[in-house]
Design brief:
single chain, alpha+beta, Jelly Rolls, Arc Repressor Mutant, subunit A, 2 domains, 4-stranded antiparallel beta sheet, 6 helices, 11 strands, globular
Length: 209
């Protein structure tokens, strides 16, 4: 199945005039675990990883934010972030403060429903993964791909093998071997710098091994 599913955040580009444009170079921290949220971001271009630390201090990637998506929404109303967001590539973001958001929903009330859906989806993703202390290589890669699949509402994941290795911290050889095995099992495919998730239900099995 190769159809692109409806993604409510794609419509958010219509509201960028209400935010503040920010350019961040690679490896910059957008927000840090423990920081008090005062707004949220829309990623216009680039790539961002959302990660946390295990009790042993090891970084674990929970999600990858792609252009056209929101981040930081779950902590925008004076709540502490329980993840850290870091740019993987040079990125252009639009920042919406809490005051910007109040002005936006006053002028465009339907946007509140879009933000609410985004918060619910992101909290669901994080709740599933944040209490796992250790993940195997296959679990790490499956987690990233499936979280993007659910969050971005798309069977096509616009990431390269290099992007996946950079975001997860795994070697390109490790990522290559895992993806090669999954291609042979017809779980995924890749072309034109994109991954195609052919069977998300079977891919989920790797999360529980």
């Amino acid at each position: 199945m190769m159809a692109i599913l409806f993604n409510h955040e794609n419509n958010f580009k219509n509201y960028l005039m209400y935010g503040k444009r920010q350019y961040m170079k690679q490896k910059n921290v957008v927000y840090e675990q423990g920081d008090i949220g005062k707004g949220f971001y829309y990623l216009d271009s680039g790539l961002i990883k959302v990660h946390t630390s295990t009790p042993l201090g090891k970084e674990r990637v929970l999600n990858i934010v792609l252009p056209g998506q929101l981040l930081g929404v779950q902590a925008m109303d004076q709540q502490a972030h329980f993840t850290t967001a870091t740019t993987v590539k040079d990125s252009v973001l639009y920042y919406f403060s809490y005051d910007d958001f109040k002005k936006l929903i006053t002028i465009h009330p339907p946007i509140l429903n879009l933000i609410t859906k985004s918060i619910i989806q992101k909290m669901h993703i994080l709740a599933e993964q944040i209490n796992l202390h250790t993940l195997t290589t296959e679990q790490q890669i499956a987690t990233v791909l499936l979280n993007i699949y659910h969050d971005f509402k798309s069977y096509e994941i616009p990431l390269t093998q290099k992007d996946l290795a950079t975001c997860t911290g795994l070697t390109r050889i490790t990522v290559y071997k895992t993806l090669k095995k999954w291609k042979e099992k017809k779980l995924i495919d890749s072309k034109n710098k994109r991954f195609l998730i052919k069977n998300p239900d079977l891919l989920k099995n790797y999360l529980f091994q």
